[in-house]
Amino acid sequence: MSIKVTSLSKVYDTQKAVDNISFELKKGEIVGFLGPNGAGKSTTMKIITGYLPATSGTAEVCGFDVQEKPMDVRKRVGYLPEANPLYYEMYVREYLEFTAGIHKLGKDSKKRIEEMIEMTGLTKEAHKKIGMLSKGYKQRVGLAQAMLHNPEVLILDEPTTGLDPNQIVEIRDLIKKIGAEKTVLLSTHIMQEVQAMCSRVIIINNGQIVADDSITHLQEASTRQDVTIVSFDKAVDQAQFNSIKNVSSAESLGENKWKLVSKNAEELPRELMQWALDHHLTITSMHSEVHSLEDVFRKLTK
Fold first, then answer.
1. Is 0.70 surpassed by the pTM of this model?
2. Topology of 3-219 in CATH?
């Protein structure tokens, strides 16, 4: 496993920021780490990267225990914290050269720096001081330093903060490309980003994991089978649904689309088709209500 967290806890005085959590990430996975503010996401990421000690439990990266082998872990991890720490008086290329020196990249450093500058879209800004850059470009510098030493694992805390829509798409594509051969754990509050990049999500609330599954399975598990979304080829009056035995309520969603709550989800489709035929209507679409990832998140973290 690239990341293995076992019975991990972190306590500040009387507050449990992380409460006995366990999860694993394999190579090639891009996993979204979600939770409301104060849920324990950043604390967990800081423990995995060796920035914070755990109160109890263990965290391993590529088989190395974070507490026992911190330098082996740091060689294999690229970390972009939520508060992107940069030296504003340094030029972009100068800062990456400084970072390359820390990682002891040696003779390969110049080539790797240019690769990262191009990969993160910093070519036009590389001659500037970091303090002169927009927030989005500062974020790109942070990503460049995180990937500079070609780590096996990337920990990204809010990686698209401050980026405009075009930049978000570029960084999203970059993370997806990187994730094909590395392990990526990323935290974000933007559900569209999670759905675009991740195949799996871990949701944490009050320091405890409340979900760890694929996005598809989480949405299917929260789908209400008793709610049917149906569309017709022409307008329907709400009162007309009163004649359908298994419809307990009907709500218009506009554009001839209706949300029907049924007493018997198995019988309703057959009844609806016969009802539509009797009323000279054509059903253009019909499906159970599928919850969005945002709906799932809100349900699990209320």
1. yes
2. Rossmann fold (3.40.50)
